[in-house]
Amino acid sequence: MIAFWTSLAFVVLAEMGDKTQLLAMAFATRMRWQTVMGGVFVATAANHFLAVLAGNYLTALVPLLYIKIAAAVSFILFGLWTIKGDTLDDEDKRFNFSPFWTVTVAFFIAEMGDKTQLATVALAADFHAVLPVWMGTTTGMLIADAIGIILGIVLHKRLPEKQIKWFAALVFIGFGVWGMYEALAGRG
Prior knowledge:
mainly alpha; 8 helices; 81% helix; 0% strand
């Protein structure tokens, strides 16, 4: 259960102000919210499943100590990335399929190499649990993007996200520092 809840919390925090959340907001201003959520779910489930498998596979090739150090460093980097922020570079206008497939393809591609996908790889490697991490990160993405959809529908304007970004960034950096401490303290 810890793997599920940790994965969920990390992804919700990572998504605040992230490119895919901005994408959800943009789509929600032009499409039915049910279509946007459906596309987000399919894209995220597929993308994060691949990420969890990659993270789980890493533990067979790389010693656990190195994975824990890399995961800790990556969370610190995710914190710094969160402070920098993301922009939506017309990803919401790039595809011309049906509304559902437009959202699905745009989200799948936008999530490739994104911090939430990389966090999913790191969490899977750290917890060695495919299903709980996959369910946690997928649920976390749905929660965060539901917030984006609601805000997109209700507000239709730029959101003051500075405090949310800083809070999420500090949580990531804190978990990274703690993970680094645990990895290195366990070594000696």
